[in-house]
Amino acid sequence: MGFRALGRTGIRLFPVGLGAMPLSLEGGPGEETGISVILASLERGVNCIDTANVYCPNDNDIGHNERLIRKALGRFGGREPVVVATKGGLDRRGPAWPSDARPEFLRSSCEGSLRALGVPAITLYQLHAPDRKVPFEDSVGELARLKEEGKILHVGLSNVTVAQLEAALAIVRIESVQNRCNPFECEDYRGGMLRACEEQGITYLPYAVVGGQWGHARAQRHPALQELAAKYGRTSYEVIVAWHLAVSDRVVPIPGASKIASAVSSAAAAELRLSPEDVRRIAGIC
Fold it and tell me: Which of 100, 111, 117, 282 could join 91 in a cystine, given CB atoms 3.0 to 4.6 angstroms apart?
């Protein structure tokens, strides 16, 4: 399967990215295993890693995931360009991870990510989530200013509605939308979000591509998914990742991984071609 466009940036992405969050949460696999998971993805062609400053074991270690990625890229040796997409706009203190999209907080978060990643500019910086306490236009406007200053190259959004996407586009060019989407929660595919992304040349980055632990368990029990896994000689997980790819060439799923085997399986799913009938069958689950 050919590479896919990142918005209108001219950057070409491997069809499947890596969601690095599981490598840094409390109870994660540890630094050396985490680096090995990232390298396993990169060695199989993956060239987009999704992260955020709040992907860390606790609020005393903000930027942990970003620093882990920096170490892995150092070992990879720059053999191929890799897009590290990070995010700001959540407060890691406490269990709820509330939104904090105040312009000053976004600026300090971005500057912290620059230091953690060790780069002069972040290729793709995404608003992690809108903040109901802050005018959405103020949050997006700060990202536009950070872009003008050269601290970020491209702007993206996460956990947004079509209306919010349209409001953001009136302020700055948006290259990506990262929302939760899977066969059990596919409103963005059925509704207007994917269509809006296609019309505007925006890349759609679904996360929780199987549905998290709940979705994994459900996929293991779902008759249609199990039948398709047997038909293609793949896991139901790989079938679902391939389904995302078949929905639109604007889709680049970013499944998470905490084990080398999971990273390898995600990358391998890019080679799986589902029949149109089977694509429709999975779409009918939602």
Answer: 100
Q: How many CB atoms lie within 10 A of CB 120?
A: 8
Q: Does the annotation count 204 as an active-site position?
A: no
Write out pLDDT tens, residues 193-242. 999 999 999 999 999 999 988 887 888 899 999 999 999 999 999 999 99
Q: Which tokens belong to 159? A: 């956990």
The catalytic position among 55, 125, 204, 237 is: 55
Q: What residues does each domain of the chain span?
A: 4-213+248-272
> Distance between CA atoms of 16 and 14, rounded to whole angstroms?
6
The DSSP element (H or E) to which 107 belongs, if any, is helix 103-117
CA 238 to chain centre: 17
Q: Which CATH class is domain 4-213+248-272?
A: alpha beta
